[in-house]
Design brief:
The protein is of the alpha+beta class and about 575 residues long. The chain is built from 14 helices and 21 strands.
Length: about 575
């Protein structure tokens, strides 16, 4: 056991001891109060006893004194000793009042001497009443209460009677009493529906008066004793003990209504809201009992905790998304350049359009580069790192900056591609990427390029769009797949006004589509945009053309970031 757990256990024991001390002190105060209120002499001292009336009350008077509706019946026993019938002998005032209230329009025969109970009320024969009468007669012991439901036909229609019935031996006869049981059942049902119960805890003698459904709501069996306040303190979790103590203190000593939330230990960890008030013998006197309603708020509490947890997670995700977006913005600005006529001196104009994957914080694995180098042969490249989000962006940044450094070796593009493949292989098995890597030789208007598993560049010339032919031996392997791979370069001589388009597959891919169809879609879109409005001279016109082409191809189907790099040969004369 670690130190923190030990401290919590000690604190819980001290808090439980405080609750017990509070209850013990109140119990002592109540005992002291009762001692002070004990009379010094009996009130009956010196008072003569009343005269005794020798007359004995009649059986009907005794029956009428019973506060519940009652029938006196005589059991009819068969040869086998079993109950065959029960004859009505009399009823009390409460019974007659019950009939007048519940059955005012019933077609009932007049009572005239001993009559068969089941002939008058045939529906009773199918209830628990016959068995209760038989057991009471046989065992000479009270029976019930049991719920009895039966129908009586009246002029207004059938009346459903729902009562709690008891049967008790009365000399040689049986006394059948009942009360409107639907009130008790409705109270039980209400307690179950809203998971609410109540009780009154006497502080002087530890007696508890619970509601009828108290055990059910608290999840106790019928054989379990109703918990005293001492038991309650031992049942709640240590975290709830300070709240229980404060509630008892407010009710017992401050004599005011209060409430708290208690979490019960054990299976289910149920949570109850306790609303308590003091019960006093007289206004201003000490508190004799605590009356409380317990409301099961477990489901509500779990929903609230779930909502709070979801809110915290949403806030965490929002903060994470904002942080990722901020990083993505900085990273995108760093690795996706904005052209400022840097290549015009070499006879090229360049424009680029980038569309991020909105699901991945605005950055992905696409990258491009178009910049001059010391040898006078501008480096032009476009690549697509495997994956999505910051993971792909990290690989993309590594490859882009690696290529920028390698370009200063003034080696041909096939050598640069070989080295870049070694960089990707050294980064791990998951670090793969496709790329087009090219150099432009302005003295010959020649574009030399290699392909590493990437869509081939597209040439726009004389109003038509066509892919540039593959290098000898076909396109090379994707970067990072196999070390020591050699790449070959292809060449294309550019005329004034020719446009070369390099793009990532995120611009053309459709889920479940064929790569050949994707390429055809790109060629058709490029040719249509060119026919609608050929780009005029100047960088802005080329940028507008690239934007229109991307807009034509883009849509909700896209599941990756998309990049288009457009190069146009211009007249430098």
């Amino acid at each position: 056991m670690d130190a923190a757990t030990s401290r919590r256990d000690v604190r819980a024991r001290l808090e439980l001891r405080a609750v017990h001390a509070l209850l013990d002190s109140q119990r002592r105060r109540i005992r002291a109060y009762t001692e002070l209120q004990r009379p010094s002499a009996r009130l009956s001292d010196g008072v003569p006893a009343p005269p005794v009336d020798p007359s004995t009350p009649s059986g009907q008077e005794v029956l009428d004194a019973v506060p519940l509706p009652a029938l006196l019946v005589a059991p009819v026993v068969g040869p086998d000793g079993g109950l065959r019938d029960a004859f009505y002998l009399g009823q009390n005032k409460a019974s007659r009042a019950y009939g007048a209230d519940r059955l005012p329009d019933a077609r009932l025969p007049r009572w005239s001497g001993p009559l068969s109970l089941f002939e008058h009320f045939p529906a009773l024969a199918d209830t628990a009443v016959p068995a209760m009468l038989a057991r009471a007669h046989r065992d000479r012991a009270p029976q019930g209460p049991e719920t009895v439901e039966w129908l009586v036909t009246t002029a207004a229609g059938p009346v459903r009677l729902n009562d709690e019935v008891r049967v008790a031996p009365c000399g040689d006869h049986l006394l059948l009493t009942w009360e409107r049981g639907h009130r008790l059942r409705m109270a039980d049902a209400a307690q179950q529906l809203v998971r609410t119960c109540w009780a009154e805890w006497n502080l002087g003698d530890l007696h508890v008066e619970p509601s009828h459904g108290f055990r059910d709501v608290l999840g106790l069996t019928d054989r379990t004793s109703v918990p005293t306040l001492y038991d309650l303190a031992g049942t709640v979790t240590p975290h709830s003990l300070p709240r229980l103590y404060q509630t008892l203190y407010d009710v017992i000593l401050r004599k005011r209504k209060t409430e708290c939330e208690l979490r019960f230990a054990g299976a289910g960890a149920r949570v109850f809201r306790m609303v308590a008030e003091p019960v006093r013998i007289a206004p201003g006197s000490l508190v004799w009992a605590l009356r409380a309603v317990l409301i099961d708020v477990t489901a509500e509490r779990r929903r609230r905790e779930s909502a709070e947890s979801a809110a915290r997670e949403a806030h965490r995700q929002l903060e994470h998304a904002e942080a990722v977006t901020e990083v993505a913005d900085v990273l995108r600005d760093a690795v996706l350049p904005h052209f400022q006529d840097e290549l015009a001196a070499f006879g090229l104009d360049a424009a680029a359009v980038y569309r991020p994957d909105a699901r991945e914080a605005g950055v992905g694995g696409d990258w491009y580069k178009a910049r001059k180098t010391p040898d006078g042969h501008p480096l032009i490249a476009l690549g697509d790192a495997r994956g999505h989000g910051l993971e792909a962006a990290t690989l993309m940044a590594k490859l882009r900056y690696a290529l920028a450094g390698l370009a200063y070796t003034e080696q041909p593009v096939e050598r640069l591609t070989h080295w870049l493949n070694e960089v990707a292989c050294a980064d791990g098995t998951e670090s793969t990427a496709t790329a087009i890597i090219a150099r432009y030789h302005p003295e010959d208007a020649l574009l030399r390029w290699t392909c590493a598993g990437h869509p081939r560049p597209v040439l726009l010339r004389d109003g038509r769009a066509a892919q540039l032919p593959d290098p000898d031996g076909g396109p090379g392997l994707t970067l990072g797949v196999l070390c020591d791979t050699e790449y070959t370069a292809a060449t294309a001589t550019l005329r004034i006004g020719d446009i070369v388009l390099m793009y990532s597959d995120g611009l053309t891919e459709r889920r479940g589509s064929d790569p050949g169809l994707d390429t055809r879609r790109f060629l058709d879109a490029a040719q249509e945009c060119l026919a609608e409005a050929p780009p005029a001279t100047g960088h802005a016109a080329l940028q507008d053309f690239a934007e229109r082409l991307v807009t034509r191809l883009d849509g909700p189907h896209r599941t990756d970031d998309a990049t288009l790099l457009a190069l146009r040969r211009i007249d430098t004369g």
